[in-house]
């Protein structure tokens, strides 16, 4: 069965998520993973869909793309490593996401989910991070603190709580 990465972008309105997911279900496909959010009044969706994705005409008023992909899900669940939650907030300015994500990448950290919001002049970043077990977490925390201080941001970096499904 084919696997596709589907992106959806359009003006937010009541029922838009139901319309998109119903069209996918009616085509006989299954949504395996998804992330959906509002960005400046637009709904933005990313879905990993197994099966036949309906044509773009099944999604009126939305921009939809589908790209066939290969599954990269590790056998047995999540990738190994340590889970952390990073939050940063401070005055909005260019470079916050790139500097923080660069510091994590330098420690071989992977951002598994991230949300940013501009609340007035306050910029807020929340990221789920997976680190290799061998990483020196204390050194990484000091480095992240220095990066954020240079950006005028405050940061917290704490172990993620176990997810119960």
From TrEMBL:
Identify the residues that the record assigns to the ACT domain, covering every copy. 5-80, 85-158
Task: Identify one Pfam family in the record.
Answer: ACT_6
- InterPro entries hit by this protein: ACT-like_dom_sf (IPR045865), ACT_dom (IPR002912), UPF0237/GcvR_regulator (IPR050990)
Matching Gene3D superfamilies:
3.30.70.260
* UniProt-listed PANTHER family: UPF0237 PROTEIN MJ1558 (PTHR34875:SF6)
Provide the protein name: Amino acid-binding protein
Origin species, per record, is Planobispora longispora
* Highest classification ranks of the organism: Bacteria, Bacillati, Actinomycetota, Actinomycetes, Streptosporangiales
């Amino acid at each position: 069965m084919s696997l596709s990465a589907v992106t959806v972008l359009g003006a937010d309105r009541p029922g838009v998520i139901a319309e998109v997911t119903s069209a996918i279900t009616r085509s006989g496909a299954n949504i395996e993973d998804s992330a959906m959010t509002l960005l400046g009044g637009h709904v933005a969706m990313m879905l990993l869909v197994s099966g036949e994705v309906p044509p773009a005409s099944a999604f009126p008023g939305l921009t939809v793309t589908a790209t066939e992909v290969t599954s990269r899900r590790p056998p047995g669940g999540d990738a190994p490593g340590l889970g952390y939650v990073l939050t940063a907030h401070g005055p909005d300015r260019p470079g916050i996401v790139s500097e923080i994500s660069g510091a994590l990448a330098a420690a071989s950290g992977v951002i598994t989910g991230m949300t940013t919001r501009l609340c007035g002049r306050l910029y807020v970043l929340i990221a789920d991070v997976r680190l290799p077990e061998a990483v020196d977490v204390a050194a990484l925390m000091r480095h992240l603190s220095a990066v954020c201080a240079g950006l005028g941001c405050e940061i917290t970096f704490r172990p993620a709580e176990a997810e119960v499904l």
